[in-house]
Amino acid sequence: MRELSVYFCQKCGYYAYFQLPRNAVCHRCHVKLTPLDIRYQDFMNLDYEERDRLISLKIIEMTPTLVQRICEPAKLYDQRELVGRLTQEISRLTEENQKLNQTVDWMHKTIWEQLRQTRELESRLKKMENA
Ligand SMILES: [Zn+2]
Questions:
Q1: CA pair distance 60, 3, nearest whole angstrom
Q2: Which of 17, 96, 99, 117 maximizes the CB count within 10 A of its CB?
């Protein structure tokens, strides 16, 4: 029998064990899972917290731009500082998202206003044609 391997999801952190790589798919995100470079038995010997930490680190490692932006300048290994910076990054992204939504709202309003004006012009034209 083929040995089980440990796989994890880069998106949501879900992990599971499979014999065949083709079966390794995240049932939540429907993306291919990534093999974890640790033997199944070694992984089983870790407690839940150690497994969490290992997979969290892998996910962070596999997001090179995020890691470079957030961790590289300070050569960051302090988890509290990492959490702090990630929280800042999240609020920055939330703010950016809000601005984008406002822009979309504004564009919608502008489009509706233009549509209204076009209709008005059309009805004026019709009245002129009928006159
Ligand atoms: Zn997933």
A1: 27
A2: 17
Judge whether residue 63 has pLDDT over 90.
Answer: no
Evaluate whether residue 38 is within a structural domain: yes
Overall pTM surpassing 0.90 (yes/no): no
pLDDT digits (tens, 9 = 90+) for 78-100: 777 777 878 888 888 888 888 88
Same domain, yes or no: 51 and 96: no
Contact between 15 and 7 under an 8 Å Cβ cutoff? The reply is yes
Q: Ligand 1 is a single-atom ion; what residues have CB below 5 A from it? A: 9, 11-12, 14, 26, 28-29
54 with 110, same domain?
no
Range of the domain at 58: 1-62
Residue 75, pLDDT > 70, answer no
**Across-strand partners of 15?**
8
Contact (Cβ atoms closer than 8 angstroms) between residue 14 and residue 32: no
